[in-house]
Amino acid sequence: MKLYQAELLAALPDELGEGACWWPERNSWCWVDILGHKIYLRDVDGRQQAFDAGTYVSTLVPVTGRNELLVGLKDGVAFFSPEHGIGPLITVLHGAPQLRCNDGKCDPAGRLWIGTMQMPAAEGTGTLYCIAGKQAPVVKLRSVTISNGLVWRGNKMYYNDTHTGTVQEFSYDGQTGEIVFTRIAVKVPEELGYPDGMAIDADGMLWVAQWGGSGVYCWHPDTGALLAKVEVPAPHVSSCAFGGPDGHEMLITTAREHMTAAEIAKYPLSGSVFHVRLPVKGMPVNYFKY
Questions:
Q1: Burial of 268 (0-12, 13-18, 19+ CB in 10 A)
Q2: Is 110 exposed, middle or buried (CB count within 10 Å of its CB: 0-12, 13-18, 19+)?
Q3: CA-CA distances (angstroms) from residue 196 to 75, 84, 193?
Q4: Using alpha carbons only, how large is the chain's radius of gyration in Å?
């Protein structure tokens, strides 16, 4: 197994860092603090901005033809730009006070896939939705617990319901967006944490941020073999994204949610964001087509 060491990019006390994303038009890394209601942007020159979302904010994806991001909020999705802030919801996913949106990504066809979860998490209370442009959201999976980690590889989709400790594989039809569960691609040993956010490299390998696992782990989706680890000096690693000008860099978010004062004293960088340069190149970010 190859080992890499993540370096600190920005020291932050984020309660639940998430939503790692590369925004090519702005040459910037983006991420959120879900529970702190913050959106962060940091350009390649190190200029960093923070914006108050006013509510839970979980997902960031760039939008085709608009110099904006699509953001997942508590009840649905909206557009955001640093110049104009967050606009009105363009799609409402639910109206339940105990639910919020969680992780989301766009597929190669430009549809947004985004999940919901209960606060606090309760088994089987979340849903995975798919939004194609201006169309109404479509339910893709019911009875999920903590919806996370979506990537696509040819006619396959990989998905993490963190609670299960597995990376699930689905057959995926790029024309229709239909999915069918096919198998468990990766079973994460409990001592390595639980699968949270996920990215995919140009070779089709899965890079999984593992909550409680102090790192991002690279898994082979066909064999389930563990190939590499990016070591992170914080236990709760929540999301990761490839990016940078040449696609060889990775942004990694962490969290301090549920940690005791003693645990935070032991891992004071919990809640910060980290960065690593890797010999493999990531797949380019998929844009939302509106």
A1: middle
A2: middle
A3: 21, 31, 9
A4: 17
Q: From CA 274, how far away is CA 191, in angstroms rounded?
A: 22
pLDDT digits (tens, 9 = 90+) for 77-90: 999 999 999 999 99
| Whole-number pLDDT of residue 96 | 93
Nearest to 56 by CA among 111, 19, 105: 19
Instruction: Tell how many helices (H) and how many strands (E) occur in the chain.
Output: 1, 25
Q: Are 63 and 71 in contact (CB under 8 A)?
A: no
Residue 120, preceding peptide bond in cis (omega within 30° of 0): yes
Give residue 261's pLDDT: 97
CA distance 80 to 133: 16
Supply 222's token pair.
């066909």
State the Cα–Cα distance between residues 248 and 25, nearest whole angstrom.
Answer: 17
- The span from the CA of 167 to the CA of 233, in Å, is 24
Kindly report, residue by residue over 1-60, the tens digit of the pLDDT. 999 999 999 999 999 999 999 999 999 999 999 999 999 999 999 999 999 999 999 999
**pLDDT category, 214, cuts 50, 70, 90?**
very high
* Mean pLDDT of the chain, nearest integer: 98
- Residue 4, beta-bridge partner list: 230
Give the predicted TM-score (pTM) of the model.
0.98
Three-state secondary structure call for residue 284: coil
The predicted structure's pLDDT at residue 50? 98
